[in-house]
Design a protein that fits this description.
Layout (H helix, E strand, L loop, with lengths): L23 H9 L10 H10 L2 H4 L5 H14 L4 H10 L3 H17 L4 H29 L1 H10 L5 E4 L4 H6 L5 E2 L2 E2 H4 L5 H8 L2 H9 L6 E2 L2 E4 L9 E7 H13 L1 H17 L2 H8 L10
Antiparallel strand pairs: 1-6, 2-5, 3-4, 5-6
Helix pairs in contact: 2-4, 2-5, 5-6, 6-7, 13-14
Length: 294
């Protein structure tokens, strides 16, 4: 029966827009694609998008401008503070991305005091100048590291995979290849690895080749290795081959947020890393928010 009113149909995208407690991964995703997919968004839309959505959802959405508008609406309803969130956004980043985000935010803040007719042109000039300078700095850095990069390129594995591992030169030299626990029984490894890592391993070039060619049967794999140190009390190294996208997520997390690494690794592996000698040495020197133990 029509009583003159219709029930409002809720936009399903609105359900995706909610303040996130864990925002670091999304901040890095947006910053890394600032000059690409998110180039058209003004800065005061970018920050709400970073804190009110997730990178997983954004990758599936075609109309970025619309989801950004929804994020801004909710941002205003919640009376969130742009300046405070801008600082958090910058802290979630590292290196060049942090510098660019800090610069863009500063331009936006200073731009408020530039007369309206000149504001847009002034802001555009500042951002253009920054984008002209950054590549020059990167080029100089590459030249100084050229010799090392060439040698690393020769040793880097081919295909779409990365290795979750870190060792100092001395520690690596001490790890004997005869003391490596391989192959791994993936049926026993699965309960120890978080799904994020396990799926990344399954999508790696080497693991797919194993499964496709039947090189190792009965759930065995050479893509998970435990390197044992010959001396008691020293750290072991867990080497897990994962696909490039997962490797990049881990690389960004270890530089910016240990909170994200808990979700990626799970409590079992994360606690093991936290108890390692490498990690304890970092903490003793004041390194808390990031780590080289991965």
């Amino acid at each position: 029966m029509d009583n003159g009113s219709e029930e409002e149909v809720r936009d399903p995208l609105r359900d995706l827009v909610v303040r996130r407690v864990r925002y670091h991964t999304n901040c890095r995703h947006i910053a890394a694609n600032r000059d690409g997919r998110y180039q058209s968004l003004p800065f005061d839309h970018l920050i709400p998008l970073a804190f009110y959505t997730t990178s997983t959802d954004l990758k599936k959405i075609h109309n970025i401008s619309y989801i950004a508008q929804l994020a801004v609406q909710q941002y205003k309803e919640d009376k969130a503070h742009l300046f405070s969130d801008w600082q958090k956004y910058c802290k979630a980043l590292n290196g060049k991305l942090r510098a660019m985000a800090a610069f863009e935010g500063a331009v936006r803040l200073v731009g408020q005091f530039v007369p309206e007719p000149e504001r847009q042109a002034w802001s555009s000039r500042q951002m253009t100048s920054m984008r002209q300078v950054i590549p020059l700095v990167e080029s100089g850095a590459r030249k100084t590291k050229g010799k090392r990069d060439d040698s690393e390129a020769k040793e880097a594995p081919r295909g779409t995979e990365a290795v979750v591992s870190w060792l100092t030169a001395d520690h690596a030299a001490a790890l004997s290849t005869k003391r490596v626990a391989v192959p791994a029984d993936m049926n026993k490894v699965l309960p120890l690895l978080r799904r994020f890592i396990f799926v990344g391993n399954k999508l790696s070039h080497t693991r797919r080749a194993e499964l496709r060619g039947g090189l190792l049967r009965n759930g065995l794999s050479d893509t998970v290795r435990l390197h044992l140190h010959p001396k008691n009390g020293e750290d072991c190294m867990l080497e897990v081959r994962v696909c490039r996208s997962v490797g990049q997520e881990i690389s960004m997390a270890k530089e910016a947020s240990l909170e994200d690494m808990v979700d990626m690794f799970g409590n079992h592996l994360f606690d093991g890393m936290e108890m390692s000698r490498c990690r304890r040495q970092e903490k003793s020197t004041g390194v808390v928010g990031t780590t080289n133990a991965v």
